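For concreteness, we quote verbatim a single protein encoded this way:
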Amino acid sequence: MEETLELYEVTHQDLQKLASEKKPSLHDEEIRRLDSVSKEMMHHLGRGGSGLLSVSGVPEAGSLPKTLLPLARKLTLLDRDDRKRVLKDHNLGSDVPLKNVNRTVSSFAMQMKYGQGLDLNAGVVDDGEFKDLGSTFQELRFCMMELGLSVARVCDKFIGGRELEQSLLQCGSAKGRVIHYHSIADNAAVIKEASTRKQHSRSKDCKSGEVEHSDLWQKWHYDYGVFTVLTSPMFLSSMGFKSHECESPNGHTSLQVFHPEQKRAMMVKATKGSFIVQVGEAAEVLSKGKLHASLHSVLRPLKLGNNLSRETFIVFLQPSWSKTFSLQNYLLEQSDDHVFDHNEMNTIIHKFIPPLRSRLRDGMAFAEFARETTKLYYGGGGLQPNRCSKAF
């Protein structure tokens, strides 16, 4: 039976109060309540916690995910030439190889600067159902960037200094991705479209074969940035090109996290419409281990039919590429403590998830750390070994 982890939830209103530089006059009882919220946030984001929390009641983002997320599947199933045109019209690209027809995830991305005004007209193009793609993408990403900055400010206040917030502001930008996690039927449709195109063009650039349906949409890994901000996922049930939103089949997000205190994998539950904030390895290092990076994967519920897909929007907040890490007063061994317990899951994780101390050294720039992490995770072939696809 799957064990679930109900995320600690902070309201957007409380988050803004805690992150504010201003000190409004508050009653003693309210001050004590907010202090308790701050401590709870740090408990769940810190050592011994899951490295995640959720934010509810974000007013600006109420309808944006409902508009944007279904477009990820529609983009995936578009004819390749039409998709190229739509992405170009809305200044979007992709950071996964879309020519790989056996992929189980499609991702469409855009980089955006902090403080950059929203040019909502720039993304409005006469593209039928995609006409608001670019503008909605910008609005939602801007909102989620602000959430990440607010969490950084709260953590900085608790830890002391402004290391996390400044590292994000010095980077100056963040990448947003709208992601479609394919249903089995979607994979078949992508392969069919590629085969048809290949017959017409005699192209040699798309090789299709038998798809290995792993029970993970995304394999076990750490994010190596500061914070990752995610929408709660949308699940779609499809019939051909048509689809409709459905409830989570298992009552959770399909995101699974390895909990260091519980020492086992747990399925994450979050309120529908909330946003999830996840700690990355850069935040763990910059906070001298006071924050805890979340080891996670995305479970693919193969037993629940061929037509279930998952949609989400993610914003990755990271330091500038030139940011250097100091390991003074930080014991790298502590970050890998949970890996060394002698049970089956930890043995497998240790085999395929490279410990932080194997990828980081004092004075290393973030760009080099990111490159080293990517190399050790994916090697020359760009993929983790298949044995790592086991869902624990």
Observations:
- Residues 380-392 have pLDDT under 50 and may be disordered.
- The CA atoms of residues 99 and 206 lie 6 Å apart.
- The longest strand covers residues 308-317.
